[in-house]
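Hello,

I think I submitted the 5'-O-[(L-methionyl)-sulphamoyl]adenosine job twice by accident. Can you confirm which output corresponds to this input? Input:
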Amino acid sequence: MNEKKTYYITTPIYYPSDNLHIGHTYCTVMADAMARFKRLEGYDVMFLTGTDEHGQKIQKKAEAKGVTPQQYVDGVVDGILKLWKTMEISYDDFIRTTQPRHVKRVQQIFKKIYDKGDIYKSEYEGWYCTDCEAFWTESQLVDGKCPDCGRPVSKAKEEAYFFKLSKYSDRLKELLTTTDFLRPQSRVNEMLSFIDQGLEDLCISRTSFDWGIPVPIDEKHVIYVWLDALSNYITALGYPAMDGEDDEKYRRYWPADYHLVGKEIVRFHSLIWPAMLMSMDEPVPKHVLGHGWLLFDGDKMSKSKGNVVDPVVLIDRYGIDALKYFLLREYTFGQDGNFTNEVMLNRMNYDLANDLGNLVSRTVAMIDKYCGGIIPPAGPEEGPDAELKELAVGVRGRAAERMDRFEFNMALEEIWILVRRTNKYIDETAPWVLAKSEEGKERLNTVMHNLAESIRIVSIMIQPFMHTTTGKIRQQLGLEGKVRWEDAGVFDMLGGQKVERGPVLFPRLDVQAELQALEDMKQKSAKAAGAPAEPEKPAKEYEPYKEAIEFSDFEKIDLRTGIILSAEKHPKADKLLVFQIDFGCEKRQIISGVAGTFKPEECVGKKVVAVMNLKPRMLRGLESNGMLLFACEDDGKFKFVSADAEPGTVVG
Ligand code: MSP
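Support: Only one job matched these inputs. Its output is below.
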């Protein structure tokens, strides 16, 4: 019998409609790091990922290519599997929704829910987005288009089976309000408002296409994708047990500890999925965590917008560890983050080449030079030794705490505090001075020993995030054997190992040259894909500064944050938008000349900064009370100036 505590973590199953981009890898990299961290801590981990292969979109793509849907998905899934192999993603199982093990179980799941009386036949009419494979209600459409992808939707009506989602409203509300099932809290509020508006029963079958799992009680229907897709989390564990196959994994790992999902699919995971499980009288997952998106130039990456970042290009150039480190270190779980090559390259230089790489190469070189290549035992403790030791053995606990809150960036920061402290320890102890005299010899040995110990602990702690670097560091330190969690909690383990100078862990990058190289590669691949090359940008001309003013003049301006409640076109002026804005203590109308940049509906909910004490003015018959701040770009387009603060917060 397995005595270890279990930990079951999943990523969404990706649509194999196209190759994956860096946004998709973001979630998988987080799940991988967490799975590795928990394994290191000693858990019995199950890490599941896979592909969601049915649906109309895939059927259409295959038709356009003149292949069967199965042939189409096989090709794309092959690429996804190669990507995960290149990135050394440590999943324990990869489920494809076209696999017989999944198909037959989804049919059983449908029957279970049907037998419970929670599925009925009716007629569905709604707005359907083929790309997202989602039906939307009238009120959910944005500007008459799909709220997720912005593409046109069409009215669809057909005989369909429905799942009684509404029946579970109260239990879902209870789940969301009395447990920490869903995080972050902002998503909980969003889901509660869906429930309060009244949950509609969910259409779970389609007859208008046939690339799906047949409904077991009515073969002219196929199961609509979300019931099919969500079930993967349990069919992969062998649920329900059938054909004499064992469901030991289900009993061992279910309920899942964490489903990691992007913010746009939180509602499927935190309303539909638990309701399906409630209907089957099965336990619901312990947690659903919604993460933000990686944006490119502030926009969601998508092939149709031509702004996708290809992870393979970055891995080829910088290696998997550098890319994974960047993704985990730079972004905050739950929030959107902007991807830029420049920020990535600077992180790689500062944190990896300078801080970690230098520390290892300097230390190994010094042990080689001053101690004949053998890590010496420690002598008496002195000066900063105690502080270094205490920091080093405490990293384990601090990083684990951060990881349990899915704060990957802060867990890495905890480790880097030690990396930076160890670099400082070299400067403080000045080994090159100690090496000059015979009296300094014993102290020099202690310093070298402590440096090696500290790096050894770092090598353990970074293993979940950058396991190849762990291997390289340990080879340089002459360490053999398994990386063990408990070894990160002790300081004095080394002595007698033979160090081995190795190649530079992370070469220093010439940021400007790399930016140019990445841009050239982008242009080249766009050209290969038939897109016109982007014209070279002329050097930017910056506006000269205005004359200096006294602080007392600046102080007169009252700046506050607000949030746009509504926006509409000015009835008498094409260029003007009329905003109603919540400033906490009051609501105000402000008019701005930005109709050329924004559609009114895309402004709603935007956080803004306004000059509150500008005297009110009449603009074509309507009063504008204050002024919103915008950045105006060279092409005349505006960007909102905003602050992530409660409405009414003073800016200054
Ligand atoms: N097939 C469904 C999921 C079914 S799970 C039972 C699906 N697939 S997807 O391929 O469209 O998206 C998979 C995941 O990738 C989602 O969680 C989505 O948020 C994530 N991402 C896609 N683009 C992304 C970014 N640019 N940034 C971060 N995550 C992104 O939805």
